[in-house]
Design goal:
By secondary structure, the protein is mostly beta strands. 14% of the residues lie in helices and 38% in strands. It folds into three domains: 3-136, no CATH class; 163-250, Immunoglobulin-like (Sandwich); 257-348, Immunoglobulin-like.
Length: 350
């Protein structure tokens, strides 16, 4: 195939023809479901990286690839000779992914890499000759935020001297401890907490004023937590400044527990919540949860099989084992598991 030097043919008919081909390539990329800005950006990149070598015949080849955007982009970049495929790519995926291409330095060689996932169940990475400038990559990778924790509006202040956080079980509560530099705040603090089911930015006060100790420690025990639940904590200065925000703190279940049914009284459905200990997270415990009437006769077996540790919720619809509705009155439900038995009363009111 005949080759052309782009600078040698500026202003020539050949250049005009190739420019039209370039415009066609750009808009075919846009038509392939990627954003127009991305395709125009690639076109501008091509223009800025002259001089280039172009071969006749390659232009028409893109037409057969118009249904496969990543292949089309690869064809266009190969056509202009400005990229190489990163070793090990493309990678096959179990399903197609719809995503926005990202620019980064994946192989840490100091040069620009373009990453794109396509409908053809593949992830492509092309290595360009341009120098990668991280300062120009405002959102350089696929992640929720700079901390990669998936939390919206997450902010971690960096005070002078830094802050460290630790926690441990203490009785049925959680003992929290921060090591804080005396340069942070005015020596008076409070603890706020994000509860299970709350929005991630909703923290409510759970402590009063806490003074910084002489050794730079802040200690506080949260005795209002529930086992099997997860919480997040903030340490705030007296003026409301967030000094530190913890990650999610899981409160392990030390002992089995049977909760009161809700609603109570009920008609015709109620829920019963119970917890199984986390002593061995990999082992299941035998569980029996049975409903009895006031005479002690069995009405309904709700659970009768081994279960994993953690929190469990079951419903009783006011029917017996035969599926028949039972009458109004007082009933009892009893939970039996390894080393634990407990019973509670509930009222069915029709």
């Amino acid at each position: 195939m005949k080759g052309f030097d782009l600078f040698a043919i500026l202003g020539s008919p050949e250049f005009a023809r190739m420019l039209l081909h370039g415009i066609a390539l750009t808009f075919v990329v846009a038509a392939g479901s990627w954003c127009l800005a991305m395709s125009l950006g690639i076109g501008l990149l091509v223009i800025r990286l002259m001089p280039l070598r172009i071969t006749e015949g390659a232009v028409a080849a893109y037409v057969s690839y118009h249904r496969n955007v990543p292949t089309l982009v690869q064809l266009m970049l190969w056509y202009f000779g400005i990229f190489s495929v990163l070793p090990g790519f493309p990678l096959s995926t179990s399903d197609a992914m719809r995503s926005v291409p990202t620019v980064t330095d994946l192989d840490q060689d100091g040069f620009v890499d373009l990453v794109a996932a396509g409908w053809d169940k593949s992830v492509y990475v092309w290595d360009f000759a341009g120098v990668y400038n991280a300062a120009n990559a405002v959102w350089p990778r696929f992640h929720a935020n700079l901390h990669n924790n998936g939390r919206l509006n997450f902010v971690v202040p960096t005070p002078v001297g830094g802050v460290s956080f630790s926690f441990a079980r203490q009785g049925r509560g959680v003992a929290l401890q921060w090591i804080v530099s005396d340069a942070v705040g005015d020596g008076q603090y409070r603890v706020t907490r994000c509860d299970p089911g709350s929005s991630e930015d909703h923290f409510k006060p759970v402590s009063g004023g806490i003074a910084l100790s002489a050794d730079g420690l802040i200690r506080w025990v949260d005795s209002t937590v529930e086992e099997g639940e997860t919480y997040a904590y903030r340490l705030e200065a007296s003026d409301g400044t967030v000094v530190h925000e913890s990650g999610w703190v899981y409160v392990p279940i030390n002992t089995a527990n049977l909760g009161q049914n809700y609603p109570n009284p009920f008609n015709p459905v109620t829920k019963i919540e119970y917890r199984l200990p986390d002593a061995n997270p990999e082992a299941k415990s035998p569980v029996s949860l049975v409903v009895y009437d006031v005479r002690g006769a069995r009405v309904r077996e709700l659970v009768g099989a081994p279960q994993n540790p953690g929190k469990h919720v079951v419903e009783w619809d006011g029917r017996n084992d035969a599926g028949d509705p039972v009458g109004s009155g007082v009933y009892f439900y009893r939970l039996t598991t390894t080393g634990f038995t407990s019973a509670k009363k509930m009222v069915l009111l029709k």
